[in-house]
Amino acid sequence: MQLFLVITTLILSIVYTQPSSLQNVSSLESSNQFRANEIKNAFIYAFKGYKKYAWGHDEVQPVTNTTSDNYNGWGVTIIDSLDTMIIMGIEYNDSREFIKNLEFTAKGSSKKISVFETVIRYLGGLLSAYELTKDELFLNKSVELGNVLLPAFNTPTGIPTGMVDLVKKKGALGVNGHNSVLAEIGTLQLEFRRLSELSKNPIYLKKAQKVIDILQRKCTELPGLYPVFINPYNGTFTTTLVTWGGLGDSFYEYLLKQHIMVQGKTSQYIDMWMLAVNTTMKKLVYTAKGFSNLTYLAQWENGEPFFKMGHLACFAGGNFLLAGKFLNNTSLTNLGLNVTATCYNTYIETNTTIGPEEFGWISPSDVISSKINKSQKAMYKKHGFFVTDASYILRPEVVESIFYAYRVTHDPKYQDWAWNIFKSINKFCKTSIGFSGLEDVTNITSDWNNSQQSFFFAETLKYLYLIFSNTSLISLDEWVFNTEAHPLRIGGG
Ligand SMILES: *[C@@H]1O[C@H](CO)[C@@H](O)[C@H](O)[C@H]1NC(C)=O
Ligand SMILES: *[C@@H]1O[C@H](CO)[C@@H](O)[C@H](O)[C@H]1NC(C)=O
Ligand SMILES: *[C@@H]1O[C@H](CO)[C@@H](O)[C@H](O)[C@H]1NC(C)=O
Ligand SMILES: *[C@@H]1O[C@H](CO)[C@@H](O)[C@H](O)[C@H]1NC(C)=O
Ligand SMILES: *[C@@H]1O[C@H](CO)[C@@H](O)[C@H](O)[C@H]1NC(C)=O
Ligand SMILES: *[C@@H]1O[C@H](CO)[C@@H](O)[C@H](O)[C@H]1NC(C)=O
Ligand SMILES: *[C@@H]1O[C@H](CO)[C@@H](O)[C@H](O)[C@H]1NC(C)=O
Ligand SMILES: *[C@@H]1O[C@H](CO)[C@@H](O)[C@H](O)[C@H]1NC(C)=O
Ligand SMILES: *[C@@H]1O[C@H](CO)[C@@H](O)[C@H](O)[C@H]1NC(C)=O
Ligand SMILES: *[C@@H]1O[C@H](CO)[C@@H](O)[C@H](O)[C@H]1NC(C)=O
Ligand SMILES: *[C@@H]1O[C@H](CO)[C@@H](O)[C@H](O)[C@H]1NC(C)=O
Ligand SMILES: *[C@@H]1O[C@H](CO)[C@@H](O)[C@H](O)[C@H]1NC(C)=O
C-alpha cells in the first residue's frame, strides 16, 4: 500500500513536472540561480582552456591556442582569477601550488614591470585571496611583491615612476616617458594601505599616502580635477587633459573607496572626491543634442570640453552610485543611474549588443569634437551616440556599473541588462577554448582580436556572477572592490 503510493507519487511527479518544466524554460532561464550558474560555467570553460594551452603564462590567446606574456610573465591569469574562483566555489589547488612556487623576478624579456598593472592585478588579487581565505601564503606573497615595487617611489617628489626595473631594483620611466600617469600613481592606495595593516609595516601606506597629499595641495584649472600626466622628478603637470576615462579614471574611484575603507576616519579623501564631483557636475556632465535623457561625461582639454567618452569611463556610473549609497545623496544616485543607462545604451544599440571602446556625441549646443562621417551621423540620429573605436576587449566597466545599480536599487531590470550582455558575450566572443575580444562591435561577423585579458576572469565574470547572487555575497557594507574587482575588507585588516 505504502510502496504503491510512493510509486504513484513518483510517476505522477514525473508526468507532471516534465511538461511544465518544458513550458517553463523561459522562467528557468530568468532564474538567478540558472544565470549565476551559466556565468560560472563560462568561467570554468575559459579557465580550462587557459590551463590546457597556457598554464603559467600570463594569458592564453583564445583563437590560436597560443600564449602571451605582457604582464610580467608571472601567470597573471592565475592570480587575477583566484578570488573569483573562491567566490564561485571553484577548487583552486593548482593555482595555490603555482603561487607557492612563484618568484617575482625578471622572466623572459620583461625586465621592467608596470607598477600600476602589478598592483591592481597581482597585489590586489593576492590580498583579496588572503582576506577571503586567511591562507598565510597569500599574505606572504603580497609582502614579497610589495617590496619589489617600493623602488618606484625613490624620486625627488615621492611620486612613483611608471615602472620598476627588476634587475637594477630601481624605478624606471613608464611608457609615457618622463610622465607618471594620474590613474597609476593614484591607484595603489587601497592595496598599499591594506598591505601595511596586514603586515604591520607602515612603509607601504606612507609611500602611497604621500601621493595623495601632494595632489591635494596642487591648484588646478578645474578644482579637484587633475591633468593626467605629472612629472615624477619635479611634480609639474605636463598636459591639460582631464578625464574620468583611461589615464584619470581610477584615481577618482580610489578617493571615494579610501573614504569607505577607512570608514570616514579622515575627511581628506571624501573632500577631494566631492570637490572633483562638484566640478564634474558643473563642467563635464552633458546631455546630448536631441537626447535629453542621455548623460555623458565629457573630457577637458586646452580649456574646453571634448565630447568623447571611453568604455573605461563607464565605471563612473557605479562610482557615483556607491557614493550615493554611502553618503545618502540621491542626486549622486540619480547621476549614477543616468550614466549607467547611457553606457548601457551604447551596448544595446550596436549590432552585437556589445558596447564599443570609445564613442562620441553631439553637445546640446551642437558641438561635435570628432570628425564624423555619414554613417556615424546616421547612427547618432537614431541612437544618441556614434562609435569612434569599435573594438571590445572584454572590458567590465558597464557590467560593473550595472552591478552597483542592482545592489543599490534591487530593481530586476538591471539583472536583465546584465543577462543581455552576458548572452551577447557568449554569442560573439566565445571561441573553441575561451573568450576573445572583438575588432568591431558594429559587425556581427567581426573578427576576434585573439586576446583574453585576465580582467575578464577578475572583473567581468565576477560582477556578472554577483549580480545574480545573494546580495550578502561580498556585501557592499563589508567589502570595497579594488579597480580590478578584488574585494578588500572595509575597516581594519
Ligand atoms: C512556471 O513556474 C512558475 C514558478 O516557478 C509557476 O508559478 C508557473 O505556474 C509555471 N508555469 C507553467 C506554465 O507551468
Ligand atoms: C584550439 O583548441 C581547440 C580545442 O582543443 C580546437 O578545437 C581548435 O581547433 C584549436 N585551434 C587551433 C587554431 O589550433
Ligand atoms: C585541494 O586541497 C584541499 C586542501 O589541501 C584538499 O582537501 C583537497 O582534497 C584538494 N582537492 C583536490 C581535487 O586535489
Ligand atoms: C609566511 O611567512 C612567515 C614568516 O616568514 C613564515 O613563518 C610562514 O611559514 C609563512 N607561511 C606560509 C604559508 O608560507
Ligand atoms: C619639469 O620637467 C619637465 C620634463 O623634463 C620639464 O618640461 C618642465 O619644464 C619641468 N618643470 C619645472 C618647473 O622644472
Ligand atoms: C559641493 O557643492 C555643494 C553645493 O553645491 C557644497 O555644499 C559643498 O560644500 C561642495 N563640496 C565641496 C567639497 O566642494
Ligand atoms: C550631493 O552631492 C552633490 C555632488 O557633489 C553635492 O553638490 C550636494 O551638495 C550633495 N548633497 C547633499 C545633500 O549632501
Ligand atoms: C537619507 O536622506 C533622506 C532624505 O534626504 C532622509 O530622510 C534619511 O533619513 C537619510 N538617511 C540616513 C541614513 O541618513
Ligand atoms: C537623470 O535623468 C533624469 C531623466 O532624464 C533627469 O531628470 C535628471 O535630472 C538626471 N539627473 C542627473 C543627476 O543627471
Ligand atoms: C531615452 O528615451 C527614449 C525615448 O523615450 C527611450 O527609448 C530610451 O530608452 C531612453 N534611454 C535612456 C538611456 O534612458
Ligand atoms: C548593422 O546593423 C544595421 C541595421 O540592422 C545593418 O544595416 C548593417 O548592415 C549592420 N552592419 C554590419 C556590419 O553587420
Ligand atoms: C565584417 O567583418 C568581416 C570579417 O569577419 C569583414 O569581412 C567585413 O568586411 C566586415 N563588414 C564591415 C561592414 O565592416
TrEMBL record:
Keywords from the UniProt entry: Calcium, Disulfide bond, Glycoprotein, Glycosidase, Golgi apparatus, Hydrolase, Membrane, Metal-binding, Signal, Signal-anchor, Transmembrane, Transmembrane helix
Domain of life: Eukaryota
InterPro entries xrefs: 6hp_glycosidase-like_sf, Glyco_hydro_47, Glycosyl_Hydrolase_47, Seven-hairpin_glycosidases
Pathway: Protein modification; protein glycosylation
S-S bonds: 314-343
Methyltransferase recorded as keyword: no
Reactions performed catalytically: N(4)-(alpha-D-Man-(1->2)-alpha-D-Man-(1->2)-alpha-D-Man-(1->3)-[alpha-D-Man-(1->2)-alpha-D-Man-(1->3)-[alpha-D-Man-(1->2)-alpha-D-Man-(1->6)]-alpha-D-Man-(1->6)]-beta-D-Man-(1->4)-beta-D-GlcNAc-(1->4)-beta-D-GlcNAc)-L-asparaginyl-[protein] (N-glucan mannose isomer 9A1,2,3B1,2,3) + 4 H2O = N(4)-(alpha-D-Man-(1->3)-[alpha-D-Man-(1->3)-[alpha-D-Man-(1->6)]-alpha-D-Man-(1->6)]-beta-D-Man-(1->4)-beta-D-GlcNAc-(1->4)-beta-D-GlcNAc)-L-asparaginyl-[protein] (N-glucan mannose isomer 5A1,2) + 4 beta-D-mannose; N(4)-(alpha-D-Man-(1->2)-alpha-D-Man-(1->2)-alpha-D-Man-(1->3)-[alpha-D-Man-(1->3)-[alpha-D-Man-(1->2)-alpha-D-Man-(1->6)]-alpha-D-Man-(1->6)]-beta-D-Man-(1->4)-beta-D-GlcNAc-(1->4)-beta-D-GlcNAc)-L-asparaginyl-[protein] (N-glucan mannose isomer 8A1,2,3B1,3) + 3 H2O = N(4)-(alpha-D-Man-(1->3)-[alpha-D-Man-(1->3)-[alpha-D-Man-(1->6)]-alpha-D-Man-(1->6)]-beta-D-Man-(1->4)-beta-D-GlcNAc-(1->4)-beta-D-GlcNAc)-L-asparaginyl-[protein] (N-glucan mannose isomer 5A1,2) + 3 beta-D-mannose
Main location, first listed in the record: Golgi
Keyword Transferase: no
Catalytic machinery residues: 117 (proton donor), 249, 357 (proton donor), 397
EC number: 3.2.1.-
Signal peptide start and end residues: 1-17
Cofactor requirement: Ca(2+)
GO cellular component, one term: Golgi membrane
Enzyme class: hydrolase
One of the protein's GO biological processes: glycoprotein metabolic process
Gene3D superfamilies: 1.50.10.10
Annotated binding of Ca(2+), by residue: 483
GO molecular function, a single term: mannosyl-oligosaccharide 1,2-alpha-mannosidase activity
Membrane topology: Single-pass type II membrane protein
Localization per record: Golgi apparatus membrane
Similarity-based family: Belongs to the glycosyl hydrolase 47 family.
Protein name: alpha-1,2-Mannosidase
Phylogenetic lineage: Eukaryota, Fungi, Fungi incertae sedis, Mucoromycota, Glomeromycotina
